[in-house]
Amino acid sequence: MPFIVDGNNLIGLTAGLSLRDEKSRQILVQRICAYQRRKGGKYAVYFDGEPRVGPMQRDSRLGGVSVRFSGHGVSADDSIKMVLRRAAHPKEYTVISSDRELLTECKHLGARQMSCVEFNRAMGRLESEPLRKWESPLSRSEVEEWLKVFGEK
């Protein structure tokens, strides 16, 4: 099931993050990536406007998380609504936001909704759990390193 995240809305409702700080976008995306690695699913995080200075590009992908910027003069909310209107099966999507207008439109289109508070709780619960070895797949470089350690390469 694909998840669509209203990034600016989630930042505004997340302790320790600020809409004025570009690093907050990066921190949020990193948290969602960590959550996605452990829980699975595909996530698209939408931010208002254009990317500011930093490593995130207009449209980038980090594992199962894609980052999208709405562009000049278009809100992330409008971009999210457009995605759902164009989707063959909008009921397969879950939109993460606390914006009432956006969630009302999502409900009208048949998409599931999750509040930012609920999603923050879910991420917090998972972050507080210890990693189990099978929940954290090795990266390619880690595999290479272990192959060297065991003389397989």
Write the layout of secondary structure elements.
Elements: E1 2-6, H1 7-12, H2 22-39, E2 42-47, E3 59-62, E4 65-69, H3 76-86, E5 94-96, H4 100-109, E6 112-114, H5 116-128, H6 140-149
Give an overview in words:
The protein is an alpha/beta fold and 153 residues long. The chain has helices at 7-12, 22-39, 76-86, 100-109, 116-128, 140-149; strands at 2-6, 42-47, 59-62, 65-69, 94-96, 112-114. Strands 3-4-2-1-5-6 form a six-stranded mixed β-sheet, with helices on both faces. A hairpin with a 2-residue loop joins strand 3 and strand 4 (65-69). Helix 3 runs parallel beside helix 4. The model has no long low-confidence stretch (mean pLDDT 85).
Strand-residue proportion: 15-25%
Order of helices and strands: EHHEEEHEHEHH
Pick out the low-confidence regions: none
Arithmetic mean pLDDT: 85
Sum this structure up briefly.
The protein is α/β, with parallel strands linked by helices and 153 residues long. The protein contains six helices and six strands.
Q: Which key features would you list for this structure?
A:
6 helices, Rossmann fold, alpha/beta
